[in-house]
Each structure stands twice: as C-alpha cells, then as structure tokens.
Design a protein that fits this description.
Radius of gyration: 19 Å
Distance between the termini: 20 Å
Strand content: 25-35%
Shape: globular
Order of helices and strands: EEEHEHEEHHEHEHEHE
Helix content: 25-40%
Largest sheet: 6 strands, antiparallel
Oligomer: single chain
Number of helices: 7
Number of strands: 10
Amino acid sequence: MIRGLAAAALCLVPAASAALDLPSGAVRAAESAERFGTYALPVGPWTDAGLPTELLEGRVELTAWHVPGTATTLELLAPLRDRLAAEGYESVFDCATEACGGFDFRYEMRVLPEPEMHVNLGDFRFHAAPARPGDLQTAGTGGPAAAAENAQPGLLPGSDPAAAAAAPGTLAATLDATGRAVLADLSFETGSSRLAAGAFPSLDALAAYMAANPGRRITLVGHTDASGALEPNVALSRARARAVRERLIADYGVDAGRIAADGVGYLMPLAPNVTDEGRALNRRVEAVVTSTD
C-alpha cells in the first residue's frame, strides 16, 4: 500500500525552508510553484460559517509525496511536526479528520489535485506552523493512496485503479483497503441526475457493506468530466450523489444518518479529460468511508 503525504511551503521572503524528514522510500509524486502568489492558510476547523483562513502572499510551493508502507497518518505526520518545532516553527493549527471539519475542510483548503494527492476523507491530518519571519511550513497526511505499480492504462500515475473499477464482488474489500470505491455500474440519463430504474449490483454490495458494518458512515461523492463550466458540473455531481443516497435509503433501508452526499464536479479526475475513455472514467459516483473508528 502507498500512503499519501502532502507538504506545502510558503516563503514570504527568500529564506531556507525547514528540511522535512521524509520516510525512507518516499517518492515525489507532483509539485507546483509560484514565484509570487497567495495561499489561504487554514487557522481553524471548518464550521457552518466557513473555513477561517489567513491570506498570505509570497512564493508558494506545493509538493505531494507517496510513501510506501502501512504507517498511520499520525505516524507519518508526527516526525514532520517534531522537525518543524525543532527548526523554530510554532504550530498555529493542528487537527485530524472530523476535528478539522471533515469533508468541508478538505475541499475548502488548497492542496495538489487528485490523483497525485489523494486525501482519504475518513482519515487525514493537517498541521500549520509559521514561525520565523517570512517562513511558513504546512504538512498534511492524506491517508491511503494508490500503488503506482497497479496503474492501469488511461489512468494518471498515482491514481487508484482499485477504487476506479471496484467490481460489486470486491466493493467491500476495496472500501476496507482504500477507504473509497467507485460505484461503476450506475447509469444516469444524459445530462440528468435521474438514476436509471432497475437493480445495480454495486448498490446491493454497498448496502450489504453498510449492514455488515453498522458503525460505519459513508459519503457519496459525485464527479463529472470537464465538459462545461464548474458551477453547473458541481450541481449535477451533487444531485447525482443525492439520487444514489435516496435510492439506498428508499430501496435498501440504509439509515439516512449514516450516509451523506455531495459533489465536486470535475475537480478530482481519475483520468485525463482529453479522451472519451478518460471522460467516461471521470463521470462517476464514489462511496467514501468517513468513519474514524
């Protein structure tokens, strides 16, 4: 298994950033840099009033690392947090999953996009530590991501083929292993949020998973391809996820309190949107385990 690790640095003036101690075998998966940009630093958890941030300006560097092994998010983050403290950085905000604000925190903050930086919505941590004038270091661990050696043709390096193509018979195992799974057999009317009539084996499997794990909660996340503007795509993806939620509640008796629904439009592609095959992969609804127990 590969676990995802994100490190972001913002330097307000030329200065050497702290040399973060990364686990052995860590591979740089993606990075971006702006000579002069802005970064909205989360300084508290997400609430109904939104995400409290402090807007900073300067050089912005974002880096995603893939780390081999099965270390927990805390085991990954703790040595980085300790190193920042040793370098003189003082923590201003530190949180884990639901204490951060869960799903809403993740999508309000800025990290590198999927699939290079996959954040498990049920298991992630965030740490922000500005200290010496001109320097800011943030680090976060994002939970299970994909093993590069398992990549399938048409998927971006680092994407999760197991989650992308979870057959109904393996859906439970995929959810346990990666924390998310695509409900790959769902069918919607073109341009509509209406879920087609009939049975879907993936919903049978998901309902069985929920029954077998009564303490688990999930969020259904809708996704689209990149055709059209973002706002209507987000609305469509959210509506499709809600349609799936309603079907699970009405037809399978899943407790409404254990299943949420939202959508992110085209912001988290599994594959490039430049081919018909890639766009088809990107149009999907995923089940994401959001329990932390």
